[in-house]
Specification:
Elements lengths: L1 E5 L4 H9 L4 E5 L13 H6 L3 E4 L6 H6 L1 H21 L3 E7 L22 H16 L3 E6 L2 E2 L6 H11 L3 E4 L3 E2 L2 E2 H11 L6 E4 L6 E2 H12 L5 E4 L19 H5 L7 H19 L1
Parallel strand pairs: 1-2, 1-3, 3-4, 4-5, 5-10, 6-9, 7-12
Antiparallel strand pairs: 8-11
Helix pairs in contact: 1-7, 4-5, 6-8, 8-10
The structure holds NADPH dihydro-nicotinamide-adenine-dinucleotide phosphate and dtdp-4-keto-L-rhamnose.
């Protein structure tokens, strides 16, 4: 299959490249491919793909709060350009979106049809990306995922491991709940979804949920370091961008399609086992 991947050098993009290596891949990312450039769709049209997996995005949540125009330019306008290009060549578009499209006031797992109401500029720009993808390309699947961490790239797990090696004690918020997701598992599921014609919005995360504090506690436990992890509140850790207090995504639709994802604990264990080999290869 001819597949274009945007954000191909990113955390998820790197895993997608590995999972999809049997396909004819066109890999796009900064600096040669810039979503904020008006003509960025041209290279997609020229590749005449059957599928475009649009993982490229401005993902700095606090940075987006400081510069919302840049987040909109990449995540909303850029996504529209990608979607128009996909539509022009009759390709299917798989757009990767986020749990941060929800405001977090929910009390049960969010289903795909629940109303969105982002509380951050990043979430706002990704929601606009979803809307434009669905409007500009008829054959679109929006894959909403959450709390991604992978072997390649910066993420919460690596930050916690780093802090645990430097500090006597960690402080982590215990009033935000979501679904940590290993990007290798997400890439694998996207590979399976290529053979399925699902459209619309689909939630894909590792199974189960936890708070950032519970997640950090498990990361530290698996690391074998005896570092205490103190539970704090969001108010104790002011950040430029608001995060949803509850952004657990329901797996019901995924299950109805016949798929399941491993638990977040299982994903984290496999990540931790694989990390030393990757770290020593890059250092
Ligand atoms: N990380 C997470 O926790 C979650 C991510 N998502 C979504 O999943 C997708 C993949 O995320 P992830 O792999 O973690 O993110 P990364 O930031 O690792 O990868 C995104 C890639 O997009 C590139 N990019 C940024 N701006 C532009 C631009 N203007 N033009 C072209 N490319 C650009 C980045 O380049 P550079 O590094 O040089 O900026 C990077 O290579 C994104 O759409 C994100 O919104 C959804 C839920 C959770
Ligand atoms: C590192 C650290 C973070 N935190 C808190 C801050 C914040 O509320 C929460 C998560 O922190 P981060 O900034 O690492 O994560 P954040 O950038 O909010 O992660 C989000 O990224 C985007 C791209 C998404 O799409 C989301 O699904 C989500 O994964 O943990 C602590 O309490 N203590 C700490 O030591």
């Amino acid at each position: 299959m001819r597949i274009v991947i945007t954000g191909a050098q990113g955390q998820l993009g790197t895993d997608l490249r590995q999972v999809l290596q049997g396909h004819q891949l066109t890999l796009l990312d900064l600096p040669t491919f810039d979503l904020t450039h008006q003509d960025c769709g041209r290279v997609i049209v020229e590749a005449v793909p059957e599928v475009v997996i649009h993982a490229g995005a401005h993902t700095d949540v606090d940075g987006a709060e400081r510069n919302p125009a840049l987040a909109m330019a990449a995540n909303a306008e850029g996504t529209e350009r990608v979607a128009r290009a996909a539509a022009l060549v009759g390709a299917r578009l798989i757009y990767i979106s986020t749990d941060y499209v929800f405001d977090g006031r929910g009390t049960r797992p969010y289903v795909e049809t629940d109303p969105t109401n982002p509380v951050s500029a990043y979430g706002e720009s990704k929601r606009a990306g979803e809307q434009r993808a669905l409007a500009c390309c008829e054959n679109t699947l929006v894959v909403r995922t959450a709390w991604l961490y992978g072997l390649h790239g910066r993420n919460f797990v690596k930050t916690i491991l780093q802090l645990a090696s430097e500090r006597p004690c960690l402080k982590v918020v215990a009033d935000q709940r979501g679904c940590p997701t290993f990007s290798g598992d997400l890439a694998g599921m996207i590979g399976k979804l290529l053979a399925h014609s699902a459209r619309g919005v689909l939630h894909v995360t590792n199974a189960g949920d936890c708070t950032w504090h519970e997640f950090a506690t498990e990361i530290v436990r698996l690391s074998g370091r005896p570092v205490p992890v103190e539970a704090i509140t969001t108010a104790d850790m002011p950040r430029p961008a608001k995060r949803p207090a509850y952004s657990v995504l329901s797996a019901d639709r995924l299950h109805h399609l016949g798929f399941t994802m491993p638990s977040w604990q299982d994903g984290l264990q496999r990540f931790m086992k694989a990390l030393p080999a990757v770290s020593s290869a890059v250092s």
